[in-house]
Amino acid sequence: MRGVSAGAAGPTARSSPNAAAFPAGPLSKKSSALVVEARSLVVRYGGNPLPTLEEISFSVPRGSVYALLGRNGAGKSSLVRCLLGQQKPASGECVLFGEDVWKHRAHLMAKVGVVPEDPDAPPSMTARQLSAFCAKLYPSWDAPSVEARLKRFDVPAGTPYGSLSKGQKALVSLALALGSAPELLLLDDPTLGLDAVARRAFFGELVGELADRGTTVLLTSHDLAGVESMATHVGFLKGGKLVLDEDLEALKSRFRRLRYANEQTEERLEYGQELSDFDAVKVKVRGWGVEAIVSNYGDDVFARFAALDGVVDAEASAVSLEEIFIAVTGDPPAGRTA
Amino acid sequence: MTRGLSVDPSDAVPLWKQIEENVRRLVASGAMKPGSVLPSVRDLARDLSINPATVAKGYQRLVDAGILAVKRGEGTFVSEKPPSAPRGEREKQLQSGALSYASLAVTLGAPPDEAMEQVKRSFGFLRRKREGGTE
Amino acid sequence: MRAFAAVFAREVFERRMVFAVAFAAGFVPLIGSLAYGWRSPDAPEGRILVALVTAAAFGLAFALLIGGSVIAGETSEKRMSFFFSRPIPSAALWAGKLLAALFVTFAAAALAFAPAWLSGTGHARSLSGVDATLGNTVLVALVLTLALILGAHAVVTVARLRSPWVALDLLLAPGLVFLAALAMRSLLRDESSALSVAGDINYGIEWALIGLAGLVVLALLAATFAQVAEGRTDARRAHGAFSVVFFGIVGAAVALLGGYAWWCASAQATDLAQVAGGVQTTPRGSWVVASGPLRAWRGAGAFLFEATSGRSIRVRGGDVALSQDGTRAAWGELRFGFFERKDTRLDLFIAELATGRTVATGLETAGWAPMALSPSGRRLAVQDENHLATFDLSDSQNPKQIAVFGPLDSRRFAFVDEETIRAFPRFFNTQIKGWDPARLEITEFSLSSKKSLVTGRFEPVTLPFLGLGPDARFFVCTRRLTDDPDGKRVLTLHDGRTGALVATLATNLGNVQARFLTGNRIAVAGIADAKARLIVFEGEKGWGAPARTVDLGPTTRVVLGGEIAAGRVAVSLITFEENLPSSRRAAKLAFVDTATGAVSAGPDGLVPAATFGWWFNPVMTPAEAGLPASLLFLDADNRLVRLDPATGAQTVLLGRSK
C-alpha cells in the first residue's frame, strides 16, 4: 500500500492502559497471540495461469474483529475455504491458533464457529436436530443457549432448515456457530440478503458475544457501514491480492477528503501541484474547486497546505470506510456485492 | 439516556473518543448528574451497533480521568466527587485540548479573537444547561 | 469415534423414510399371497421369490441413489462444508457416510425381504437358495451393495464435480479396462495353449478376475477416502484426489497383471522348470520339441528348441509335425477370440528352423487336424474335416494347394517320399458292432497323379499300432495279451504298404518298446521275469529270428533310447522305490553295442529324452546314428541334459534343479 499510517492517530487499540475495569471486549485482553495467520498464501486453479490468491499474508490478533472486504471474484471464498482448512493452498499456509489448519482441521474446528456465505446445513434437519447433532461433536456444547438464541431470533426450532428463509438460515447458522463458545468466529458475508430486522438481530447477537466473551472475529462483508462500527482491522482484497491490511482506526485517521478552491482550476494541468505533500488517491475537479482524497493526512501537513498561495478555503473532512474502499481498490460500489 | 451518546462511525474521530467526548459533554452540561448510572458496555454497544470494546475503551478512559466510577456488580456511574486529576495532568490535558482547538481554528482560517469568543460562549452554554437542569 | 457415531447416526436418521418404505414393501408379497390363497402349497415359495426380487430392486435403487448423493452429491451442492467446518476427522466423515449408506441400503433390502422370509417354511427357504448359504449370501450382498454405492459415487463424482480431471477419467478408465482385458486375454491364451500341453492346467484366471474386482472396490474405498481427506470442499481437488488414488491403485494392479501376463507370454524354452514326458526329435538336425511346467502360476508350455544353439520358438498348440530333414516344423494353434478359444478352427504355422522364423501360413483347418510334413518340409498334408488337403510350402507365406483327397475318416499320415502320402488307420475300436471294414485300409495318395489307391489293410487284432519305420516301409504294432495280468504285449512287424505281417518280434515282454536303427536293424526292449532285455533284429539276416538278445539285469521299468553312435543304443533301467513319487526314481544308464552285445555303464540318473512313445510317431525314423537329439537325456530333476558319450560330460540345457 501507499505507506503505513501517517496520520496523527490517537492511542491505538492495543495499547489501552489500566484495562481492569472493563474486562469485556477484546481491547482489554492483554494476549497478543495471533488467532489467524495467513502466510504467503497462493491459490491457483488448474489451467489458470493467474493465481486466484497471490501471496496473501495477514494476521488476526486475539480479540480483534477483522473485516475482509472485496467484491465477488476477489478471491474471498477461496481465502475463507483456506482459512477453514477446506482447501489446500498451492503454497503458503493458513495457521489457526498456531497450528496449520489444513493438517489439523478437525481439532481446530472445535474452537471455530462458522457462518457460511451460502447456507450449507442439511436441509432436512431442524435447528433443534442440528443442535443435537453438534452437541455430539463439541466437548462443551451449550444447547440451552442455542435454544435461547433461536427464541430471541424468533426462528422456529422445529422447522427443517431447508424451509427457512434466507435470514432465518443465517441466524440458525449464527446460533450454531456460537453454541460451542468458539474462540474464533468466521462470518462469511453473513448479512448478505438479510432484511433490516434480521440484520439487526444478527449484529445484536454478535455484539453480545463480543461483550461477553471477547471472541475473535474474522468476517467478510459487503456491508461496509455495518463493518465500520464493528471492525478493529480491515483488509481489502482485490484481484487475488491483499491491497490493504490495517488497523481501522489508523486507516481512518490517515484518510481525509480535502476540498479547496484553486485559482487555476480551469486549467486542469495545474491542479495538484499544491497537493505534492499528500498522497492523493483520487482527485476531482468540481465547479467550485478541487476535491481530493488523501491517504497520508496529518494536521501539521494540512496546516502548511492551507497556508499555500492559491489554496483558498481549504477544509478536511472524514472519509467513510466505503469511500476508502472505493478509493483504494478502484472498485465501483455497485461491484461490491453482485 | 443514550441519545446523547450517539456516535458517527464515518467521522474521523475514533468511536471510543466520540463516546469519551460525548460523556464528558453530558457530564459537563449536567445532563448526567453525579451518581447517575451509565448504560452497560454491552447495552450501549448493542444500541449503537458498535464493537463493545470501543465502548469499553471510552469508558475506561473516563474512569482513568475520574469522571466515571465503577462499582463492582452495580455498573458504571458518574463520579460523585469532581475529578481530582493531579494539577500537572490536568494542565497537560487542557493544553492538548486547547492545541487541538487552536489548530482547528487556524485551519479554518478563523482569527484568534473569534476562536476565543467561541470558547467563552461554550462555557456559558454548559453553565446554562447545568442550571436549567435539562438538556 | 464420537464423531463417526454422530455422522453415522445422522446419515441413517436422515434416510429414515427408506426404512418405512422398505418395511411397507415387505408386506406386498404377503398381501399378494393372501389374494392368491395363503395355504396353497406354492405360496411360501412364491412369497419368498417375490420378496427376493423386491429386496434386490430396493438394494439396487437405494445403493445407486444414496451412493450418488452421499459424498459427491453433497460436494457438488456445496453442503459438505457444514461437516468440514466442524470438528469431524475426515476419516470419521468418510466412514460414517459410507457405512451409513451401506447400512441403510442393506437394511432396506433386508426389511423388504424379512416378512416373506419369516412367513415361509423351511422348504420354501431352501428353494430360494438363501437358506443354506445365508452367511455367504449376506456377505456377497454386502460387498455387492458396497460396490454399487461406490460405483454410483464414482459416476456422480465424475459427472457432477465438473473438473478437468474428467479428461483423465475418460482416458484412463477405458484405457485400463482395455489393458486389463489384453492382459487377461494373454493369460487366457497362455492357459489355453498350456491345456494342449498338460491336461490339468488351472491358471486361476477366475480368481484373478475376482481379485481384480475386489481390488477395484478397495481402490474405490481408498479413492473416496482421499477425496474426502484431500479434496474436502474443493470439488476440483476432491475429484483429482479421487482419480489419482483410484487410477493409481487400479493402474498399478493392471500394470502388475499386465507385467505378469507379459512375463508369462514371453517365456522361452529356457524358462521351462522341467521337461516333462520326453522330447520329440527330428531324424536330422538338432531341433526338438520340449514341453513342461512353465514359470506362470501352474503354467505349462511347449517349445521348439535347438539343442546346439539354445534358440527356442514357442508353440501354442498340441502336436508338432517335423520334417525328416529337420528344416521345418508345422503345427496348428487354436484360433483365439478376444477372450475365449474358438475350438472350431486352427491357424497353421510353419517354423523355418534354419532361421528360427515362425511363419503364419494363412491356412486354417478344423479344430483337430492331424498333419504331416514331407521329408524336405516343402509339402504339408493336413486333414481338414473329412478331406486331406496338401500344400506346396516352397514359399511358406504363400502356400499353394496341390490336391484335396477324400472323403476319408480320421487318419494318420506319413510321407513316403515327396510325392506320396500314406494314410493309416487311426484309433479304432473293433468291439463296436457294424464297423466299416474300410476304416482299416491303408491308402496311398499320389501328389503327382492326384489319385488315391488302397494298398492294404490292417488286421483288426493288430490295433493299436505303435510306430512307423524308415520311409513308412514298415510299421510295428502291439497287441495286448488280454488275459495277461502283467500287461505283456505281442509286438509284430508289418509291411508299411500292405499291412502284411512280416515277423513277430516279441510275445512275452512287458513295457515293450521298439526302435528302428540305422543299418536296417530294429532294437526291441522290454521286461521279462522282472529283468530288462534288449533284442536286436537285423534285416540282412531276415526278421524272423533275433540276431542277439542281451540281458540287462533286474529292473521295474526300461526306457529304450536312440543310437548315440553307430550300433550303440542307450537304455535306462529304472527302479522305483516303494511308495515314493516317480521323481525319486533311480535310473541306471547303459550303452549296448548291438553288434557284440557288450554293455557299458553310463552316468547314473539319466534317462533318454527322445523316447519311443506309445503313439504313432513317424519322426522316430533315424537318418543316422549319433544325432544331437539322440544325445539328449533327462536327469533325476527332469532337466534336459546333453551327454558327451566320449567323456561322459553333461550339459544342462533346459530346466532347473529342484
Describe the structure.
The complex is a heterotrimer of chains A (338), B (135) and C (658). Chain A is of the alpha/beta class and 338 residues long. Helices cover 28% and strands 25% of the residues of chain A. Chain A contains 10 helices and 14 strands. The two termini of chain A are 26 Å apart. Helices cover 57% and strands 7% of the residues of chain B. Chain B has helices at residues 15-28, 41-48, 52-64, 87-107, 112-132, and strands at residues 37-38, 68-71, 75-78. In chain B, strands 1-3-2 form a 3-stranded antiparallel β-sheet, with helices on one face. In chain B, strand 2 and strand 3 form a beta hairpin. The interface between A and B is large, with 48 and 33 residues.
Write the layout of secondary structure elements.
The complex is a heterotrimer of chains A (338), B (135) and C (658).
Chain A: E1 34-43, E2 53-61, E3 65-69, H1 76-83, E4 91-96, E5 99-100, H2 105-108, E6 112-115, H3 127-135, H4 143-153, H5 166-179, E7 184-188, H6 196-213, E8 216-221, H7 224-228, E9 233-238, E10 241-247, H8 248-254, E11 256-262, E12 280-285, E13 290-294, H9 299-306, E14 311-318, H10 321-329
Parallel strand pairs in A: 3-8, 3-9, 6-7, 7-8
Antiparallel strand pairs in A: 1-2, 1-4, 4-5, 9-10, 11-13, 11-14, 12-13
Chain B: H1 15-28, E1 37-38, H2 41-48, H3 52-64, E2 68-71, E3 75-78, H4 87-107, H5 112-132
Antiparallel strand pairs in B: 1-3, 2-3
Helix pairs in contact in B: 1-3, 2-3
Chain C: H1 2-14, H2 16-26, H3 28-36, H4 43-76, H5 81-84, H6 90-119, H7 122-127, H8 134-160, H9 165-195, H10 205-231, H11 235-265, E1 280-281, E2 287-294, E3 299-306, E4 312-315, E5 320-322, E6 328-336, E7 341-352, E8 357-366, E9 371-373, E10 379-384, E11 387-392, E12 400-405, E13 411-415, E14 420-425, E15 441-446, E16 452-457, E17 465-468, E18 474-480, E19 489-495, E20 501-517, E21 521-528, E22 531-538, E23 548-554, E24 557-565, E25 568-575, E26 586-593, E27 599-604, E28 607-608, E29 632-634, E30 640-643, E31 650-654
